[in-house]
């Protein structure tokens, strides 16, 4: 059974600093950072106007608040952004303007190791929250693809106490077979970071072991055949029920490797992944944390705009754990 308190304890021991670009205009972020500070899960930097934030909540006097317009770091960040993007045609004037954007400002703090990670998305789209990281921080591998996953946990009749990693549900619209393999490897790394003891990975499809044919099925089969990770039991192509139900697995594929015990699910495209994670969350009354961005050099994570305060707290702890070997 997943213990969120243990996750918080592990994050607390890392003593990392997380920056929140939406603090100036999102009440849920303010409530979450107060919990993070009280429980000492991580250190916090809030982006916004100091006076406005303190007027809203006097307890924020005890927080580190940075205003992009008045920060002493502004010139340093402008020069850093320009150096990163001048080869893409960015001018110094454009860099000066973008640094005033809270998402760019926060991402630059992470890239310069002033913060260890960033959490955003409670008040914006994934594209708005993650675009600066893709431009500035970039993939941890040359020509590597950045993917995302959702961490599903809770208790319901079907899953019982099982935790799931679902990928990709937020970034790659129509991955190739090779990109599915890369996403699978990144998802295994996420599972390890979260402390999952067993890793059973399924490449999902509308077909189970040749029960249907088509271009999407062939893509998934190719990915499943290419994936090879020690200590990870994997199989594909599988339908969702064959991946998660031992009874169905025995009926559809007797003697299969996963035996209906998959806990890492790799989806063939963004449509199926995003729809499924939301359905599991809503119909199963389960927690869905993420998108957890996978494959960046330094951690920048996204939130669903439907997130709860507790979701923000948990994703912040996960971000602190991701930063373990990435910064400072």
Write a compact overview of the structure shown.
The chain is built from 13 helices and 11 strands.
Mean pLDDT: 94
| Major beta-sheet overview | 6 strands, mixed
Oligomer designation: single chain
Residues in helix, %: 40-55%
Q: Major sheet: order of its strands?
A: 8-7-9-6-5-10
Strand content: 15-25%
Uncertain stretches: none
CATH fold-type name of the largest domain? Rossmann fold
CATH class wording of the largest domain: Alpha Beta
Q: Could you outline the blueprint of secondary structure elements for this entry?
A:
Blueprint: H1 4-14, E1 17-20, H2 27-38, E2 43-47, H3 50-56, E3 64-66, H4 74-85, H5 92-99, H6 102-111, E4 117-119, H7 126-136, E5 147-153, E6 164-167, H8 177-194, E7 200-204, H9 215-226, E8 233-238, H10 240-244, H11 246-252, E9 264-266, H12 270-284, E10 287-294, E11 300-301, H13 309-322
Parallel strand pairs: 1-2, 1-4, 2-3, 4-11, 6-9, 7-8, 7-9
Antiparallel strand pairs: 5-6, 5-10
Written overview of the protein:
This protein is α/β, with parallel strands linked by helices and 328 residues long. The protein folds into two domains: 4-138 and 298-325, Rossmann fold; 147-284, Rossmann fold. Helices cover 43% and strands 15% of the residues. The chain has helices at 4-14, 27-38, 50-56, 74-85, 92-99, 102-111, 126-136, 177-194, 215-226, 240-244, 246-252, 270-284, 309-322, and strands at residues 17-20, 43-47, 64-66, 117-119, 147-153, 164-167, 200-204, 233-238, 264-266, 287-294, 300-301. The strands form two sheets. The chain has a six-stranded mixed sheet with strand order 8-7-9-6-5-10, sandwiched between helices. The two termini are 32 Å apart.
